[in-house]
C-alpha cells in the first residue's frame, strides 16, 4: 500500500500548508540517495511478489459477505511473523479492513530454482491465513468482491454514514476502512482536496432482462437522505441519476475510495543491478502493462451488478482522483498550478531511457550468456509523444545537480502532486538518513510501474515495481504470472529486446485492456521488430569478435533493407494477445513465450527444472491463445449460468456464496471444484496431473540453441529460426523441434532425453551443431547436403543424447 508511517495525521486544511515543505525536502532526499547510489552496482537479482487477500464470511443462509474480522487475523499473523523462527511470510495492512496483504518474508534470490518456490510460498501464505479463520470464514483472492457496496455486504453488518466520516459514501460504512491513521486520512483529504466526493460510473452489462435505459434505484440510505425530494415528486419514484448529479444512466455509480482501493492486485518488484538497468526495464515493461492487465482481467461485477468492463483499473483510478476542477480543466487556472490530464493512479506518462551513463562509457556484462553487449539504448525521443506536465523549479534543481533530462522530468512530474497524508511528528527530518518526504509523494503516485530509488543507508538497490496485473483466483495462476514477469525481464536483458512504442499508444492499450473479454477479442499496439540488430542473436557478444561486428552488422542491415525497403524499423501495429505471446509466423513475429523458452534453453537448465517452468509458460500460452479464458470471463459466465440469476445484470449474495464456495474448494485442492474452474486455469492447476502426464506430449517449438563459442561466427537468427552465416555462399539451416516426454510411473516428473530432428539442410557445418553431435560424428570439415541425408528428419538423439548442463544463476 505504500508508506505506512505512524504519528498524528494532519487534516487537509493544515496539511496543504506544508505541501511545499514536503516537496522541497523530498527532492533533497532523492538527490542525496542519487549521488550516493548512481554508480553502485549489485550482482544478484532479488525480487518479490505482493498479493492482497479478502476474508469472506459464509453464513448458513447461503450469503457471502466480506468480513472485517480480517483485521484481527492480520494482527495475529504479524505477531507470528515477529516471534516465530523461519517464518516465510510477511503481512501488512491494506486499505480495507477485510483485506490482508501478504508477501514473502525474504525476497526470492537470483537462481532459477528460486522460481520453483513461488507457488508453494503462495500456498503457504493462504494456509497461514486459513489457520486463523473462524469456521464460517474463507480466504479468497478476488480482484473485487462482486457485492461490495450492495445491501448487507459486510459482516458484522454496518450502515454507511453518508453525512459523516472520511468518505461520506452512500454505500460504504466507515468500519470497512482500515483504522491505521493513513487510510481514513487519505480518504478524507482526497475528498476535501478535490472539492467533492469521487465519482466513478461503470457501464452496465446489458443482459436479456436488463432495463433499457438502466436507471440505478436508490438504496435504502439514499431514500432516507433524499426524503424531501422524493416526497415532492408526484409518485415518489425517482432513480439515482435523477437525484445524484454524478450518477449516469446505463451506468453503475460508485462514490468512494473503497471501491477502488478495496480491490486486490498482484504486484512484482525486482531489484536491478544498477540504475541504468532499472531504467531500461522500467521502459520496456511499460508497453507490457496494459497487455498484462488484459490477460489477468478479473473484475466483471461491482456493487451487485454485472458491468460491461473486465478490469479494476478505471475504478481505482477514479477512486483516488484528487484533482480539483481547475486541475481537471473544468475551470480556468486560478488557485492551482497545473492542468493535469490523469489521476494519481494511472499509466506512466513518459519513458526514462536507460540514461546517458548507459551508452557513454560503459560496456555492461551480460550475466546471462557470459558475454558483453554493446552499450546501445533503444530509446528515441519520439516515443515520449505526450506533453509532460512537470514542476519546472524542481526540474531545474535536479538538472543543476547533474540529474539527466529524462530522469529529472520524471521526478518533477511526480512532484506536481500534493502530499495527501502528512504526519505532524515527521515534518522535520534528517534528509541524509530519511526518505519519508520523497516516499510521501512517490508512494501516492500509483502508476502502472514505479521506479524506486534505494532507501537511505540500505543495501537495497534500484528497483522497479510492476503494478498493472489483477490478482488471480488461484495460487497456481498468481505464481505463473509472477514467474512470467521475472523471466521476461531476464529475456529482455539477455537478448537486448526492444519493446518501445509511443507512450500515447500505451495509453490507448490501457483503455482497450479493460473492455469486456479484451484478451480474446481486441488488438493492442505492439512493436513489430522486437529483436534488434544489436541483439546477441544477431550481433557479436565476444570481445574476440568485436573487429568483425561492424562488418557483420552492415551485411545484416543490407539484407534487411533489401527485404523491407519501405518498412520502418520502429514500426508498430495492432496485434492480438495471442500473436504477442505465441508469435505470428506469417508476419515473421516471434512471440514472448518462444523467446522465454529460447532464453531458458540458452542457460541450459536440467530437464526437471525446465519441465516445472514449462507448466507455467504453457498455461500463459493457452490463456493468451484464448483456449483458456480470463478470470473475469469465467466469473461472468459463472454468474450468468447460475440458477438464481434472472438475466437482469443483478448479482445477489447467494450467487456470490456459491462462487466463493468453489474458489475455497479450488484452493484446498478439491477435485470437483478444480474441474469447475478448469476453463480459466487449465491443466496446470492439477499439479502432477497436468500437461506433463504420461499420456501427453509437450511440443515446444523454439529457436535452436547451441553453445556460443568464441571460435565460430555462425549466430542463431531468431527471426528466421535458422543459423545464419554472414556470407552469400553459405546459408545454414538447422531447425528442430524438441519433443519432451514425461513418464510419471518411472521417473516422477523427470523428462526423458532431449530429441532433435534435423531438416532443411544446406551445407551445414559441424561447428554450428551442439558439441554432442560433433564428438560422436565423423563429419568432415564441410558437409554437403547429400552427406547428411542419412540423418535428415531422424531422431539423432537416440544415438547421441544431448547433455543438459546446469547453470544456477539466471542473473
TrEMBL record:
The keyword Nucleotide-binding applies. It holds the Pfam family GCS. It comes from the Eukaryota. Residues 552-562 have a biased composition (Basic and acidic residues). Pathway: Sulfur metabolism; glutathione biosynthesis; glutathione from L-cysteine and L-glutamate: step 1/2. Its EC number is 6.3.2.2. InterPro entries: GCS, Gln_synth/guanido_kin_cat_dom. The keyword ATP-binding applies. Residues 536-568 are annotated as: Disordered. It catalyses: L-cysteine + L-glutamate + ATP = gamma-L-glutamyl-L-cysteine + ADP + phosphate + H(+). One of its GO terms (cellular component) is glutamate-cysteine ligase complex. GO terms for biological process: glutathione biosynthetic process. One of its GO terms (molecular function) is glutamate-cysteine ligase activity. Keywords: ATP-binding, Glutathione biosynthesis, Ligase, Nucleotide-binding. Belongs to the glutamate--cysteine ligase type 3 family. PANTHER family: GLUTAMATE CYSTEINE LIGASE (PTHR11164), GLUTAMATE--CYSTEINE LIGASE CATALYTIC SUBUNIT (PTHR11164:SF0). This is Glutamate--cysteine ligase. It comes from Anaeromyces robustus.
Amino acid at each position: 500500500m505504500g508508506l505506512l508511517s505512524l504519528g498524528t495525521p494532519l487534516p487537509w486544511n493544515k496539511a496543504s500548508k506544508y505541501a511545499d515543505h514536503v516537496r522541497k525536502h523530498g527532492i533533497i532526499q532523492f538527490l542525496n540517495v542519487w549521488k550516493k547510489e548512481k554508480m553502485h552496482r549489485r550482482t544478484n537479482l532479488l525480487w518479490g511478489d505482493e498479493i492482497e487477500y479478502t476474508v469472506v464470511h459464509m453464513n448458513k443462509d447461503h450469503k457471502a459477505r466480506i468480513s472485517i474480522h480480517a483485521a484481527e487475523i492480520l494482527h495475529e499473523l504479524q505477531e507470528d511473523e515477529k516471534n516465530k523462527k523461519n517464518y516465510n511470510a510477511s503481512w501488512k495492512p491494506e486499505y480495507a479492513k477485510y483485506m490482508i496483504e501478504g508477501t514473502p518474508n525474504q525476497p526470492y534470490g537470483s537462481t532459477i530454482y528460486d522460481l520453483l518456490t513461488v507457488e508453494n510460498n503462495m500456498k503457504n501464505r493462504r494456509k497461514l491465513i486459513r489457520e486463523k479463520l473462524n469456521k464460517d470464514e474463507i480466504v479468497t483472492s478476488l480482484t473485487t468482491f462482486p457485492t461490495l457496496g450492495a445491501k448487507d455486504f459486510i459482516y458484522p453488518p454496518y450502515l454507511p454514514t453518508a453525512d459523516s466520516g472520511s468518505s461520506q459514501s452512500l454505500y460504504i460504512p466507515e468500519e470497512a476502512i482500515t483504522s491505521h491513521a493513513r487510510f481514513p486520512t487519505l480518504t478524507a483529504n482526497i475528498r476535501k482536496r478535490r472539492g467533492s466526493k469521487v465519482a466513478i460510473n461503470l457501464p452496465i452489462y446489458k443482459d436479456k432482462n436488463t432495463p433499457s435505459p438502466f436507471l440505478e434505484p436508490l438504496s435504502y440510505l439514499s431514500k432516507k437522505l433524499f426524503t424531501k425530494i422524493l416526497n415532492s415528486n408526484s409518485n415518489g419514484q425517482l432513480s439515482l441519476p435523477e437525484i445524484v448529479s454524478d450518477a449516469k444512466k446505463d451506468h453503475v455509480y460508485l462514490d468512494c475510495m473503497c471501491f477502488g482501493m478495496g480491490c486486490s492486485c498482484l504486484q512484482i518488484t525486482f531489484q536491478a543491478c544498477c540504475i541504468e538497468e532499472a531504467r531500461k526495464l522500467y521502459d520496456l515493461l511499460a508497453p507490457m502493462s496494459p497487455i498484462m492487465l488484459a490477460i489477468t482481467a478479473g473484475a466483471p461485477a461491482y456493487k451487485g451488478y454485472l458491468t460491461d468492463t473486465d478490469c479494476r483499473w478505471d475504478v481505482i483510478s477514479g477512486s483516488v482522483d484528487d484533482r480539483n476542477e481547475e486541475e481537471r480543466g473544468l475551470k480556468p487556472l486560478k488557485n492551482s498550478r497545473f492542468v493535469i490530464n490523469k489521476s494519481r493512479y494511472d499509466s506512466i506518462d513518459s519513458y526514462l531511457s536507460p540514461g546517458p551513463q548507459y551508452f557513454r562509457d560503459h560496456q555492461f556484462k551480460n550475466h546471462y550468456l557470459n558475454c558483453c553487449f554493446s552499450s546501445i539504448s533503444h530509446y528515441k525521443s519520439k516515443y515520449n509523444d505526450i506533453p509532460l506536465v512537470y514542476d519546472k523549479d524542481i526540474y531545474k534543481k535536479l538538472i543543476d545537480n547533474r540529474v539527466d533530462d529524462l530522469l529529472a522530468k520524471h521526478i518533477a512530474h511526480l512532484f506536481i502532486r500534493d502530499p495527501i497524508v502528512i504526519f505532524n511528528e515527521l515534518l522535520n527530518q534528517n534528509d541524509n538518513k530519511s526518505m519519508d518526504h520523497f516516499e510521501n509523494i512517490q508512494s501516492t503516485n500509483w502508476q502502472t510501474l514505479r521506479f524506486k530509488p534505494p532507501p537511505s543507508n540500505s543495501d537495497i538497490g534500484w528497483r522497479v515495481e510492476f503494478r498493472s496485473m489483477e490478482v488471480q483466483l488461484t495460487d497456481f495462476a498468481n505464481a505463473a504470472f509472477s514467474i512470467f514477469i521475472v523471466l521476461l525481464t531476464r529475456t529482455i536483458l539477455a537478448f537486448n529486446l526492444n519493446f518501445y512504442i509511443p507512450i500515447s499508444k500505451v495509453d490507448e492499450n490501457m483503455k482497450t485492456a479493460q473492455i469486456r473479454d479484451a484478451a480474446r477479442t481486441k488488438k493492442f499496439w505492439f512493436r513489430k521488430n522486437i529483436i534488434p540488430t544489436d541483439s546477441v542473436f544477431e550481433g557479436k557478444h565476444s570481445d574476440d569478435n568485436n573487429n568483425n561486428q561492424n562488418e557483420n552488422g552492415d551485411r545484416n542491415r543490407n539484407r534487411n533493407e533489401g527485404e523491407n525497403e519501405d518498412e520502418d524499423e520502429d514500426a508498430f501495429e495492432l496485434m492480438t494477445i495471442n500473436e504477442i505471446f505465441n508469435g505470428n509466423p506469417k508476419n515473421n513475429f516471434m512471440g514472448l513465450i518462444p523467446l522465454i523458452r529460447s532464453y531458458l534453453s540458452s542457460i541450459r537448465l536440467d530437464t526437471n527444472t525446465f519441465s516445472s517452468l514449462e507448466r507455467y509458460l504453457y498455461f500463459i500460452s493457452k490463456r493468451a491463445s484464448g483456449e483458456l479464458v480470463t478470470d473475469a470471463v469465467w466469473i461472468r459466465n459463472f454468474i450468468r449460468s447460475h440458477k438464481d440469476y434472472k438475466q437482469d445484470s443483478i448479482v445477489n449474495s447467494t450467487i456470490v456464496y456459491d462462487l466463493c464456495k468453489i474458489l475455497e474448494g479450488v484452493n484446498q485442492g478439491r477435485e470437483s471444484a478444480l474441474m469447475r474452474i478448469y476453463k480459466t486455469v487449465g491443466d496446470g492447476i492439477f499439479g502432477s496431473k497436468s500437461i506433463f502426464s504420461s499420456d501427453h506430449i509437450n511440443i515446444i517449438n523454439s529457436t535452436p540453441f547451441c553453445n556460443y563459442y568464441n571460435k565460430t561466427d555462425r549466430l542463431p537468427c531468431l527471426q528466421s529460426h535458422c543459423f545464419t552465416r554472414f556470407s552469400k555462399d553459405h546459408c545454414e539451416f538447422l531447425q528442430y523441434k524438441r519433443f519432451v516426454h514425461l513418464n510419471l510411473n518411472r521417473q516422477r516428473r523427470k523428462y526423458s532425453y532431449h530429441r532433435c530432428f534435423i531438416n532443411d539442410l544446406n551445407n551445414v557445418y559441424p561447428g554450428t551443431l551442439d558439441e554432442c553431435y560433433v564428438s560422436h560424428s565423423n563429419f568432415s570439415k564441410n558437409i554437403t547436403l547429400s552427406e547428411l541425408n542419412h540423418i535428415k528428419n531422424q531422431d539423432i538423439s537416440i544415438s547421441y543424447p544431448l547433455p543438459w548442463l546446469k547453470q544456477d544463476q539466471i542473473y
